[in-house]
């Protein structure tokens, strides 16, 4: 067993140097080396048994409770909430811009936008007929249910039928955090490569819908749409797939139809404020700025 501290990784993490593997550059201290040697000697098979403790469970349990409150609040308003997740640059903001300009003229929409810094995307999406709030997370690489509850309080959702949540550009962290959405939408761009679903299976496995974006440039990039779809179906057989381009307009009609057919039935009475989801919690952390 190697005594290189860089190789003492948690269970499930594997490092495979395919070419040019580096040799260890330092040695462990004598006491630590002695402890490891003693542990190895005590193991019948010469292995150190490691017990992993998942410290994220309490955090996720709390988030899931808040997410269920959000979901009930949105459904009570007859609001379809969608969580859009992708790598940076996959086209979330561009797609939402055109969606607000076309579908948003027919069905009233609202948008919550998450980014580490700046309100650039929120300003790009700002429309007179759509309420938009920018969530600035600082160093947090994903949105969570508490952020969504606070942001939903900050905008006027009266008469809105669809709430788009544009998550922080990231295919890893958002997979674990339910925001209270009814539908999780994962975007895969033709600029990313056909094997992205195979590299990041958790987020694709959690998707209700996968949008294959920027298909207008697929041929120029040498992107094989058929292979990409096969990889999506291999990892996420439960997900519907729509191939589209926000620039050319290809595939937008099926996207709009998908939204129309999933609008919840509106209740007769307006529910209470979403404030209950965050009541008693600290208001420090991510910044929420309604767009004016």
Name the CATH architecture: 3-Layer(aba) Sandwich
Order of helices and strands: HHEHHEHEHEEHHEHHEHE
The overall number of domains is 1
How much of the sequence is in beta strands?
15-25%
Tell me the CATH topology.
Rossmann fold
Largest sheet: 8 strands, mixed
Gross morphology is globular
Number of helical elements: 11
Helical content class:
25-40%
- The main sheet orders its strands as 7-6-5-1-4-2-3-8
* Model regions low in confidence, pLDDT < 50 over at least 5 residues: 1-26, 269-284
- According to DSSP, the number of beta strands is 8
Q: pLDDT average, as an integer?
A: 82
Distance between the termini: 60 Å
- Please tell me how large the radius of gyration is: 23 Å
Topology at a glance:
Layout: H1 30-42, H2 57-76, E1 80-85, H3 92-101, H4 103-106, E2 109-115, H5 120-125, E3 131-136, H6 145-154, E4 162-166, E5 183-189, H7 196-199, H8 201-205, E6 209-213, H9 218-221, H10 225-235, E7 240-243, H11 252-260, E8 287-290
Parallel strand pairs: 1-4, 1-5, 2-3, 2-4, 5-6, 6-7
Antiparallel strand pairs: 3-8
Helix pairs in contact: 2-6
Question: Can you describe this structure?
Answer:
By secondary structure, the protein is α/β, with parallel strands linked by helices. The chain has 11 helices and 8 strands. The protein has one domain: 3-Layer(aba) Sandwich (Rossmann fold), CATH 3.40.50. Helices cover 33% and strands 15% of the residues. Strands 7-6-5-1-4-2-3-8 form an 8-stranded mixed β-sheet, with helices on both faces. Helix 2 runs parallel beside helix 6 (145-154).
Entry summary:
By secondary structure, this protein is of the alpha/beta class. 33% of the residues lie in helices and 15% in strands.
């Amino acid at each position: 067993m190697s005594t290189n501290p860089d190789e003492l990784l948690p269970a499930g993490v594997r490092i495979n140097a395919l070419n040019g593997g580096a040799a260890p550059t330092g040695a462990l201290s004598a006491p630590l080396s002695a402890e490891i040697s003693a542990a190895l000697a005590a193991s019948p098979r010469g292995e150190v048994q490691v017990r992993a403790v998942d410290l994220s469970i309490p955090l996720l349990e709390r988030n899931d409770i808040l997410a269920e409150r959000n979901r009930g609040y949105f459904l009570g308003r007859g609001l379809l909430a969608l969580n859009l997740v992708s790598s940076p640059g996959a086209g979330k903001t561009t797609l939402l811009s055109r969606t607000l300009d076309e579908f948003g003229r027919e069905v009233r929409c609202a948008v919550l936008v998450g980014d580490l810094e700046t309100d650039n995307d929120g300003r790009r999406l700002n429309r007179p007929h759509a309420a938009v709030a920018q969530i600035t997370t600082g160093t947090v690489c994903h949105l969570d249910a508490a952020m969504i509850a606070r942001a939903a309080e900050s905008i006027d959702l009266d008469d809105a039928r669809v709430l788009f949540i544009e998550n922080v550009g990231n295919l890893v962290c958002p997979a674990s955090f339910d925001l209270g959405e009814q539908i999780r939408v994962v975007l895969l761009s033709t600029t990313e490569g056909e094997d992205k679903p195979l590299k990041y299976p958790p987020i694709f496995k959690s998707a209700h819908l996968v949008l294959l974006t920027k298909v207008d440039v697929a041929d120029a990039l040498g992107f094989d749409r058929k292979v990409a779809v096969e990889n999506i179906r291999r990892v996420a057989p439960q997900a519907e797939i729509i191939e589209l381009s926000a620039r050319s307009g290809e595939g937008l009609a099926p996207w709009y139809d998908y939204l129309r057919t999933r609008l919840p039935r509106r209740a007769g009475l307006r529910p209470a404020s979403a404030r209950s989801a965050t009541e008693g919690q600290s208001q420090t952390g991510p910044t929420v700025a309604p767009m004016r």
